[in-house]
Amino acid sequence: MVLADLGRKITSALKSLSNATIINEEVLNGMLKEICAALLEADVNIRLVKQLRENVRSVIDFDEMAGGLNKRRMIQSAVFKELVKLIDPGVKAWQPTKGRNNIIMFVGLQGSGKTTTCTKLAYYYQRKGWKTCLICADTFRAGAFDQLKQNATKARIPFYGSYVEADPAVIAQEGVEKFKKEGFEIIIVDTSGRHKQEDSLFEEMLQVEQSISPDNVIFVMDATIGQACESQARAFKEKVDVASVIITKLDGHAKGGGALSAVAATKSPVTFIGTGEHIDDMEPFKVQPFVSKLLGMGDIEGLIDK
Amino acid sequence: MFKMFKNLVGSKTLTAEDLEPVLEKMKDHLIAKNVATDISGKLCESVAAKLEGKVLGTFGSISTTVKNALQEACIQILSPRRRVDILRDAMECKQQKRPYIVTFCGVNGVGKSTNLAKVCFWLVENGFRVLIAACDTFRAGAVEQLRTHVRKLNALHPPERHGGQEAVQLYEKGYGKDAAGIAMEAINYARDCRFDVCLVDTAGRMQDNEPLMRALSKLIKVNQPDLVLFVGEALVGNEAVDQLTKFNQALADHSNMTNPRLIDGIILTKFDTIDDKVGAAISMTYTTGQPIVFVGTGQTYTDIRNLNARAVVNALLK
Ligand SMILES: Nc1nc2c(ncn2[C@@H]2O[C@H](COP(=O)(O)OP(=O)(O)OP(=O)(O)O)[C@@H](O)[C@H]2O)c(=O)[nH]1
Ligand SMILES: Nc1nc2c(ncn2[C@@H]2O[C@H](COP(=O)(O)OP(=O)(O)OP(=O)(O)O)[C@@H](O)[C@H]2O)c(=O)[nH]1
Ligand SMILES: [Mg+2]
Ligand SMILES: [Mg+2]
């Protein structure tokens, strides 16, 4: 599974604690070094990694601590807590409500997988019996409307878009109006790829958001992204009300750690992961079971409450 | 970061212990700039090996000495041993009355088609007639995307300016067909219709996807393009290394030839989205030793540049 490699490395680092006869500063530092190296290799943001290291270190004071205390357990629990913090923003994921319209807007960097994931999500809800539709509010990318149209047609999902209207906010609004009237429950709006360095593109995103007042803004992130993710994610969050993250392209070799820093930056949970180019290559994502599985530790739940 | 190490050490011989803390910080600095972790490590090791035992000048600090050595190493990595001169090579092909063939490949969504269109624009500006082969027969809208570019490019360069002929044409056979076969038809068509250059677009694929990698190798093997360009985005982190290694490996493994066609050069895209986190440029060139032929710096036809190694290294070490 995704991030499994990272999980193995962290577990083996934690085991070094169990193998050591005494837990001293040296053992702790050795373990932290291993964990941090594994996180950095997985593209987790270096500032987050350093923070994790400091936070775990600060839990233990070797000089002041009485010998009887279970340092091993304290350290393991601290590591686990920090890892959960990395993946879990501590807010509940948005859920659509049956019987009314739920407007979902996709945003993200160029080529991250928005258009593909829009159709996947629409298909996911359609199969669960929701009345679902798609809107193409990307008027910039060559062939964008054809792409969404072909995907939607194949999946038999109603869609809206235009070859002539140049203003994405107008298309988004018209499409949402139309589908609202027709009683659609899940209305998904695809937008152009953009990046924080270009103000006009960010302004446009805001205008689309304002024209449709979405219930959920999804930030789509590519699993291969490195250290640039955090500042981009933060900028998206500052401009529009990002509430969920989807990480795509996890079918490859990428460990997805860079994309995870979007969680910290947007304070939004990962709700789905993309695992291929086909329409059903998408899985729902749940944080806690994921971390437990990642670390392969059965009794880990018990550790966090201590 | 280098500010922290401004203390003057006087004239002395550099030991591993002197260098260790500085190099440790430097490695973190490189990682923060998005250089792949193991390459950051290797770079620092090479600097250490080079400096250990050297005498430090009276006015030099360890940090500036290390920084200079690293700067030199990085510039060297970014300076190609071999230059790719597309205009010259295309001209040569033209004299031989055959089209110059370029294949664009890479993982999903990195900017292959867009930067193919930019390269096309640049070639047209330089007086070449170009055929674009739509060999992404998988991704929805891939053909229409290229058709839109061809329409826009011809509007910018109307036939009146090109002896009454369209400067750019699209060769496409829709979706679902064998990409290698379409590429071959397109190349034949380009030869028959006297196009100077044929640019072959391919579908994005993950480097671990064996059937798709095999298909790409086949396309390259049967068509023997003059230039194979790997398109990678500057946003990519540690994956840069794996992508390039495995694309090259797949081209070698599946070709069954003693001298297989491998990656000849790199297009580094989305350079406008990364601020000073320029590390991918180092990771990619370090891994292949192949030059960055173009840098993509935006979404319009003119957003394509040559790499300025010095500027990149300055941003990297800032
Ligand atoms: N392997 C793999 N490919 C994916 C996945 N999600 C998307 N892709 C591919 O990534 C590429 C880009 O996807 P798009 O959906 O066009 O990306 P986008 O964000 O809409 O791009 P722009 O609109 O140009 O910003 C396409 O080749 C998709 O097939 C995934 O989970 N796995
Ligand atoms: N900011 C920026 N965006 C770019 C650059 N190059 C390409 N893009 C954008 O990246 C997105 C994906 O580009 P494509 O050319 O479709 O990528 P691709 O590699 O052909 O994608 P697939 O064929 O689906 O694998 C589009 O939105 C492009 O406009 C660049 O240099 N800078
Ligand atoms: Mg799109
Ligand atoms: Mg393409």
Largest sheet of chain A: 8 strands, mixed
| Percent helix range of chain B | 40-55%
Quaternary structure: heterodimer
Mean pLDDT of chain B: 94
Describe the largest sheet of chain B. Answer: 8 strands, mixed
Give the strand line-up of the largest sheet of chain B.
Answer: 5-4-6-3-7-8-9-10
Describe this structure in words.
The complex is a heterodimer of chains A (306) and B (318). Chain A has helices at 4-19, 25-41, 46-59, 71-87, 114-127, 144-154, 168-181, 199-212, 229-239, 257-266, 287-295, 300-304; strands at residues 102-108, 132-137, 159-160, 186-191, 216-222, 242-248, 270-274, 282-284. Chain A is α/β, with parallel strands linked by helices. In chain A, strands 3-2-4-1-5-6-7-8 form an eight-stranded mixed beta sheet, with helices on both faces. In chain A, helix 9 links the parallel strand 5 (216-222) and strand 6. In chain A, helix 3 (46-59) runs antiparallel to helix 4 (71-87) and helix 9 (229-239) packs parallel to helix 10. Chain A is elongated and about 70 Å long. Mean pLDDT of chain A is 90; it is low at 298-306. With 318 residues, chain B is an alpha/beta fold. In chain B, the strands form two sheets. Chain B has an eight-stranded mixed beta sheet with strand order 5-4-6-3-7-8-9-10, with helices on both faces. In chain B, strands 1-2 form a two-stranded antiparallel ribbon. In chain B, strand 4, helix 6 (142-156) and strand 5 form a beta-alpha-beta unit. The longest helix of chain B has 17 residues, at 16-32. Chain B is elongated. The model of chain B has no long low-confidence stretch (mean pLDDT 94). Classes of the chains: A alpha/beta (306), B alpha/beta (318). The site of one magnesium ion has 6 residues of chain A, from helix 5.
